[in-house]
Amino acid sequence: MTIRLHIASLALLAAAAFALPASADTGSPLGKWRTFDPDTGAPKTVVEITETDGTLTGTIVELLDDGETTCSQCDGDRKNQPLLGMPVLWGLTNKGDEWSGGTILRPANGKTANASLELTDGGSKLEVTGSKGIMSRSQTWERVE
Questions:
Q1: Which residues neighbour 56 within 8 Å (Cβ) at sequence distance 6 or greater?
Q2: Confidence class for position 20, pLDDT limits 50, 70, 90
Q3: CA distances from 87 to 71, 82, 105 (A)
Q4: Average of pLDDT values for 47-56?
Q5: pTM for the full model?
């Protein structure tokens, strides 16, 4: 009887695990994030943050508006390249409760800045800060489930 009960319990747990929707680890910045136009507040893109060898990279995986589709304001290799698939965050490493030491690209003006990330609201929001010298600008991104 005990073996049957254990088998039934394991089967139930396995079924429940497969029935639950896949969701990102809310204690990590990894996953997909909805970004917003800093001037209008309108949804702009979906950026997927991945980790390789302890370093984060954020790549545009979806465009949410009818605006620019290429980085016309960028310089160098990014000039006039498609925004879809373009890295806009790179080089961030974990420093306790935040990720920092990386770079962020703002495709609208082609400028880069030092970047840091911090999870808020139980991991459902990401505070993204770009800074250059004494100037900084923060924006809140929302996790896409």
A1: 29, 30, 49, 50, 89, 90, 91, 92, 93, 99, 102, 117
A2: very low
A3: 11, 11, 8
A4: 97
A5: 0.81
